[in-house]
Specification:
With 382 residues, this protein is α/β, with parallel strands linked by helices. Helix content is 44%, strand content 16%. α3 packs across α5 and α11 crosses α14. The model has no long low-confidence stretch (mean pLDDT 93). Bound molecules: ligand GMT.
Length: 382
């Protein structure tokens, strides 16, 4: 099939999933065209069967705000025609899902089918904003197929948008080989033998509850020799620095900044913290699990579908610092528990969330639409 993929090109989970999906689809013989304002970071050098089409963002003195979504829709239509796309797969309802509907209208709804994957914040945070809500609703209702990355997100979309349509749940996935026994690089090695490493990776937005990360770590560090590695950047990074200073633990926190490839760093971690206020899936928790690292996370959103409480890590109510701290200490002081949970985490990631299981599910959705298209063509006699 000829598939167009549009996504955010940055480090966010939706961009990572879309990019990995495109690469796997190309390996499976499909032709894949990425459409975005920059090449997705995880794309690297263009693999065979993959092309990239940039949406140019220009500034006109006449326009105060450049209408990016319209430029995106035009580029989608242009690529759909040039590459004779069968499927346009939008990752994130806005602007991609909405722009894809415009592109389909331009190209003709019979020739181009739109698949929209909801990733979470497009529904739980952004989509509910009054300025976007009607467009988000349209993007969901009018796509030829909609997928969500967890059962939680499907239920939440139905509840919040009162949409009565079919949606396929297709979980996010990992390539376990990428996480297999990667050695911890020197930069991430513990400073002392026996020192425990806690890790958090995110875009440091308020939804990630960075204060909780630091407070849990402070509780752990008051009882055992430990350090915290923070990976990523975002608006709440200064919060971590300030709180670390106030609590007198700043010297035990290492700030790594944005890192393209997280698997080697995860190999340095003994425990991963994800105390988010909400998380439709928690791709980074899955990546930690694939690296054999137990996860302590909030029992919220789609996280319980990923982290099995007491088996691959521990779940606690959002904001329950005490419970998270106690669980962290329990895991870190008993190496047998930590090893057992780490092995269970690796096993769960490799068996339930392997790309070889989930990429074919996307293909099945595409095939279903292609069959509908063929049936439609046959039925109209055209
Ligand atoms: O919240 C983020 O870190 C970014 C956001 C995105 O769109 O990239 O992540 C969302 O999509 C990921 C991929 O499906 C999910 O793993 C994250 O859980 C989800 N974030 C939230 O729901 C807060």
């Amino acid at each position: 099939m000829r598939i167009g993929i549009c996504c955010y090109p940055t480090h966010g989970g939706s961009g990572v999933v879309a990019t990995e999906l495109g690469k796997h689809l190309a390996e499976r013989g499909h032709s894949v065209s990425f459409i975005s304002y920059a090449a997705p970071l995880r794309l690297g050098e263009l693999p065979p069967g993959v092309s990239f089409h940039e949406v140019e963002i220009e500034q006109y003195p006449l326009l105060k705000h450049f209408p990016y979504t319209l430029a995106l829709a035009s580029k989608m239509a242009e690529v759909a025609r040039a590459k004779r796309l069968d499927i346009l797969h939008a990752h994130y309802a806005i602007p991609f899902g909405a722009a894809a509907l415009l592109a389909r209208q331009i190209v003709g709804r019979r020739s181009l089918k739109v698949v929209t994957t909801l990733h979470g914040t497009d529904i739980t945070l952004v989509g509910n904003n009054a300025s976007f809500r009607p467009v988000t609703q349209l993007a969901i209702a009018e796509a030829d197929a909609v997928t969500t990355v967890s059962q939680f997100l499907k239920d939440e979309t139905q509840r919040q948008f009162r949409v009565d349509r079919e949606m396929d749940v297709i979980y996010n996935f990992v390539d376990p080989a990428r996480h297999a026994a990667a050695p911890c690089p020197a930069i991430g090695s513990p400073e002392r033998p026996g020192q425990r490493t806690l890790m958090h990776i995110s875009n440091f937005r308020p939804v990630k509850r960075i204060r909780d990360v630091v407070e849990v770590f402070a509780g752990v560090a008051s009882r055992i020799d430990a350090r915290l590695i923070l990976v990523g950047d975002g608006p709440d990074l200064p919060v971590a620095r300030e709180l670390g200073e106030t609590l007198g633990i700043l010297d035990r926190i290492q700030f790594m900044g944005v890192v393209d490839e997280v698997a080697p760093l995860l190999a340095c971690a003994d425990l991963f913290l994800l105390p988010s206020a909400t998380e439709s899936f928690g791709l980074v928790a899955l990546e930690a699990m694939a690296s054999g690292v137990p996860v302590i996370a909030s029992a919220v959103g789609g996280l319980p579908e990923v982290v099995e409480d007491g088996v691959t890590g521990r779940l606690a109510p959002v904001g329950d610092i005490e419970a998270m701290t106690e669980s962290a200490i329990q895991i870190l002081v008993d190496e047998a528990i930590r090893q057992r949970m780490g092995a269970a985490a690796r096993h769960r990631a490799a068996t339930r969330f392997h790309y070889q299981e989930h990429v074919p599910r996307y293909e099945a959705v595409y095939r279903r639409l292609m069959e509908e298209k063929r049936d439609g063509e046959g039925g109209s006699g055209e």
